[in-house]
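Input record (Table S2, row 436):
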Amino acid sequence: MAESGQNDNFRTIPPPFSQRCGDYRIELFKRGKRSYEKVSYPIRCGVYHEIVTPNAVLHFDLNHQLIRLIGKQRDWPHPQEWLKRTIGNDWIYYSTGGYTGVFETIGEFYLPNLPYSTNNHLGGTPLEKEPIRSLIQDWPQEIGASAAACSGYSEEIDQAIERIREFTPASLAEKAQTLHRIVDGPVSVLPPDTRHVDYQVIPLNISLGCLYKCGFCRVKNKRAFSELSVAEINAQLDDLHTLLADNLINFNSIFLGQHDGLNCNPSLLCGAVELAHRKLELGASWISGSNTFLFGSVNSLLAAEAKLFDNLEALPGRIFINIGLESADQATLDYLGKPLKAAQVSAAFKRIKSINETYRKVEISANFVIDPELPDSHYQAMLRLIRDEIGTVRDKGCIYLSPLRFDAPSRARLFDFYKLKRLSRLPLFMYTIQRL
Ligand code: SF4
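Output record (iron/sulfur cluster complex):
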C-alpha cells in the first residue's frame, strides 16, 4: 500500500556479507523487500542483520537491536510464524490462524497476537506458550553461542556480534523508554491503517489529548486537546533522528499523534508532514514511497476547509486519516458517552466519502463499535451509511469495527462481523488495536 516508486537511498549501505561458522551462519546487511505486500507467505522488509543458529533465526536492525525471532525447534507452531519486537519493546507473535478467515477479518494474512488485552477477541495467547515463551527469554544465549562459534572468522562479524551483545533485554527496554520520553509516553493506539506498513511507523506528536473524552474509550488520556509548537515538533524530530540513527533507513512512515492530528492548525499539520519527511529523510528510505498516518474526529473533519485536503494531496507520500465515528445512532452515541449528534456523524461520513472520491493520495477510513448489547438501531444506522449511501462497491475508505469488550474470542461477535462484512459496500475489517 506504500506509494510505489523506489526512493534514492540517503546513505550507502555496505554490501551484504555472509559467513558460515559450523552450524551457525551470519549475514550482515541482508537485503529484504523494498515494499510492504499483502501475501500469504512471510516477507521481510528492509535491510537487516541475520544470525542463524541450530535453534533459531534472529534478525537485528541496522542499530544492531533485535527485531525478529523465528524458532527452528520441532515444536515451533508453524515454520511461517514469527516473533516481532517493536520499537516500543513489545513482543508480537504473528500466526497464520490456520489461514482461515484471517485476511477476511483483519485485512492481513498474518494475525498479530499481542501481549496486551486490546485484541483478545482475535487469536489466542501464544506468547505464554512454549517454545515461544522460552525463545523470548533465552535469545541472549543464542547470541552467546553464536559469538563463541563465529569468533575469529572475520573482523566484520566479530564487530557486529560485539555490538549486538551490547543490547541486552534491559538496554532494549531502556531504548523503548527513551522513545516514550520523546513522544510523551507510550503511544496507546496506532491508527488501524498503519497495518499497511506492518505498524512500522515513527511516532511524532503534533498535538496531545482529544476533544471528547468518550465514556467507552480505553485508549484516551486525561489531557485536554492542545497543539504542540513548531519548536517542540522540531525537538522531537531531532531526538527521534538520534534514537533511530542508522536504522532510519528502514522507516518510510510517520504517525502524527496523538488522538486528533486533524484538529491542528492546517499550517502546523502540513508543516509537520514536510518537516518529518525532511528531517527523518523518509523519501530516502530503503522502503518504497512514504506514508503519513493520523487520527481525526467528527468535529475536526467537519471543520476542515477543502483547501486543507488540497494541501495534503500536494505533500510528499500518501496520507491516511482515521476518524472514530463509532455510531450513527443517537441512542448508541449516548450509551457510549460520545458527545455527538447522529446527524454530525452522518455528515462526517458524507464528507469522508466525498474526500475519498476526490483525492488520489488522501484516504480516510472510519471506525464503528460493535457489541452484542448494542441496539438494532445502531446496526441499521451503520448499514444506511456503509451500504445504502455508497451505491457500488468501493475499495477505498476502509471501515474498521471495534468491539466494546476486550474479552475472550466470541463466535457470536465474529458472526455479527461477517454478516456486516457481506452487506458493506466498503472494505470492512476488525480493528487490530496496537500500541507502540
Ligand atoms: S474515542 Fe477518540 S475522542 Fe473519544 S475518548 Fe477515545 S481518543 Fe478521545
